[in-house]
Design goal:
The two termini are about 35 Å apart. The protein has 3 domains: about 90 residues, Beta-grasp domain (Ubiquitin-like (UB roll)), CATH 3.10.20.30; about 100 residues, Elongation Factor Tu (Ef-tu), domain 3 (Beta Barrel); about 130 residues, Nucleotide-binding domain of ferredoxin-NADP reductase (FNR) module (Rossmann fold, 3-Layer(aba) Sandwich), CATH 3.40.50.80. It is built from 8 helices and 19 strands. It is an alpha/beta fold. The protein binds flavin-adenine dinucleotide (FAD) and FE2/S2 (inorganic) cluster. Flavin-adenine dinucleotide (FAD) binds next to β11, β12, α3 and α8.
Length: about 350
């Protein structure tokens, strides 16, 4: 049986019990002690903390998110760090008082829908055995059947009011264990699945009254979809949201009707701009989401922006938003890192998440 150690989280002074084979972040989030994090896979460096006392094993931390000199200086990534003794860490904890944080829990459920919705994209709907609380924009970690110890993170596309059924949109990644190896291979409706969550802090700040631009690339639309449904259908936000949803070609776009209907129903609150890199279609604009956004806005001072997609898409879009005078503090982003990015050393521009 695995040894359990006490992790003391400063400056909160909170103590959490953590098994020697359990990441410190996981133990803290399950105990309701919120620590900063984003990817939860050792790639983005958002969860970096100081180890004030005790020993940790840095686990699967990538060498670029936690460099050798930082290891020597006593830093660690809590999403990968495994305690080897009682440990004291010091984290930069900034919690928005307005945001309710939901402790991470394990969930089981049944796949009730698994369908193709665009080229290389599936809609996955899971009916949970119980109910879940989460914030619009958060994600779950699925255990991949047949691959002990491997999990994959997919963002929730359904709004938080839907507590017993979660919707996800997943893109096929050639050679990927979770997608080509499972979801696009032998997964089927009726199968049982296991997952944990909710994770992440890429959430819509409904209490801030600034107008919002959202830019999603591919399935990067997912957390944005949850935010938009929550804002409009649940009347959680009264401002205006302009959405740019990008894909490489028209057959990679999905849920166009859903967003067009929302635009018709909420004309003062929502503007929808589907964009394609190449090709044509009714109502589609041509160009990267960032270039199309630049055509519409000379300046974005006073706005907030939410970006989600591949690390390359997020990086390009960040630069574009800053060229429109949007301060980094008003830009929130989620990078869809995968194992290939981790192996290749693709980092994240560390702004605010
Ligand atoms: C916070 C977050 C939210 C996300 N939400 C979504 C979402 O809503 N929808 C979605 O579609 N995706 C999402 N993703 C991406 C998702 O987590 C997976 O990365 C993606 O689905 C691919 O998983 P996979 O198991 O199929 O591929 P992986 O097994 O991770 O492989 C990815 C690629 O890397 C290559 N590779 C693997 N290991 C190595 C290695 N050691 N060296 C070199 N190459 C390697 C593989 O061949 C493959 O081409 C999210 C990611 C994050 C971080
Ligand atoms: S959350 Fe730990 S490195 Fe991304």
């Amino acid at each position: 049986m695995a040894e359990t150690y006490t992790v003391t989280v400063e400056p909160l002074g909170r103590e959490v019990q953590c098994a020697e084979d359990q990441p410190i972040l996981d133990a803290c989030l399950r105990a309701g002690v919120w620590l900063p994090h984003s990817c939860t896979h050792g790639t983005c460096a958002t969860c970096k903390v100081d180890v004030l006392d005790g020993d940790v094993d840095h686990g699967a931390s990538s060498s670029f998110a936690l460099m050798d000199f930082e290891r020597d200086e006593g830093k660690t990534l809590t999403c990968c760090a495994l305690p080897q003794s009682d440990v004291t860490i010091e984290a930069d904890i900034e919690v928005d008082d307005e945001l309710e944080m939901f402790p991470v829990q394990d969930f089981e459920g049944t796949i009730v829908t698994l369908e193709d919705i665009a080229t290389g994209i599936k809609r996955l709907v899971v009916k949970l055995d119980g109910e879940i609380g989460f914030n619009a924009g958060q994600y779950m970690r699925f255990r991949i059947p047949g691959h002990e110890g491997i999990d994959r993170t997919w963002s929730i596309a359904s709004p938080p009011t839907q507590t017993d059924e979660l919707e996800f949109h997943v893109a096929l990644v050639p050679g990927g264990i979770g997608t080509e190896g499972w979801l696009f291979a032998d997964a089927k409706e009726g199968d049982r699945v296991q997952m944990a969550g909710p994770y992440g802090r890429f959430v819509l700040r409904t209490w801030e009254e600034k107008p919002v631009v959202m830019l999603g690339g591919g399935t990067g639309l997912e957390p944005l979809a949850a935010m938009i449904k929550h804002a409009l259908l649940n009347e959680e936000y009264e401002g205006h949201i302009t959405l740019y949803a990008g894909a490489r070609a028209p057959d990679y776009l999905y849920d166009l009707d859903l967003f067009r209907e929302l635009e018709e129903e909420y004309p003062d609150q929502f503007t929808f701009n589907p964009c394609v890199d190449t090709g044509e279609g009714e109502g589609l604009r041509t160009g990267y989401v960032s270039s199309v956004m630049e055509e519409d806005f000379e300046r974005l001072g006073g706005y907030q922006a939410y970006i989600c997609g591949s690390p390359a898409m997020v990086e390009g879009t960040l630069k574009s938003l800053m060229s429109r005078r949007l301060f980094p503090r008003d830009i929130f982003h989620e990078d869809f890192f995968n194992e290939g990015d981790k192996a290749a050393g693709v980092g994240s521009p560390l702004i605010k998440r």
